[in-house]
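Z., the sequence and structure:
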Amino acid sequence: MQSNHTFTPSLIEAKYIKRYKRFFVDASLPNGDIITAHCANTGSMKGLLSEGASAWFMPQNDPKRKLKFSLEMIESESGALVGVNTSLPNKLVAEAIAAGDIPALTGYANLKREVKYGTEGKSRIDILLTDDNKAPCYVEVKNTTLRTGDAAQFPDAVTTRGAKHLDELMAEVDAGNRAVMFYLVQRDDCAYFSPATDIDPVYSGKLKDAALKGVEVLAYSCTVTPEEITLKTSLEVRI
């Protein structure tokens, strides 16, 4: 399994100070300068926001951008590096499927991303797999950063949007199609995946309903370094 994302240009290390207004993170560079970076992760990032934790940022050279850095990963309370960029999982999972690194999702001739679907066509599925010889496969990808005990867990905050996605996947199963809920765990210190029932019991209950309905649930861990994030291995799913 070799699917990976290499950081180019190289990431810059700094010490995390604080997060505010959801999208802003302050950090201290080794020379003492303070930078303000964009944070794409809108979840709670529970267990990841300890002041003084090492964090890594991508320099942004776009002159139109107000913030010149983006938060990519941070050292967790357990000491593991955790990828927090929510725009990365879809790309990494799509490339892994195309490379044949996810056995459960091989055998399709075509892969498309961000395809409109649903009863009103207002939603977008992260990955759509099609083939003339089988029903289409709808794959929803969730970035997963929370660790509780030995478990990777999702969500880390209440998510009505996530529950809606499960409803849409169940509708595809009802229509005779294949549907997959894929949790990309951007850390390598978890033994299995389970829903975070204590954080969002509604979502957790709906995930159980979806699995009973026939929505397949997959979870994969990643090896995370300041140089790259690499798909590692499948995790047992306990729902």
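The CA atoms of residues 61 and 68 lie 7 Å apart. Residues 160-174 form the longest helix (15 residues).

Let me know what you think.
H.
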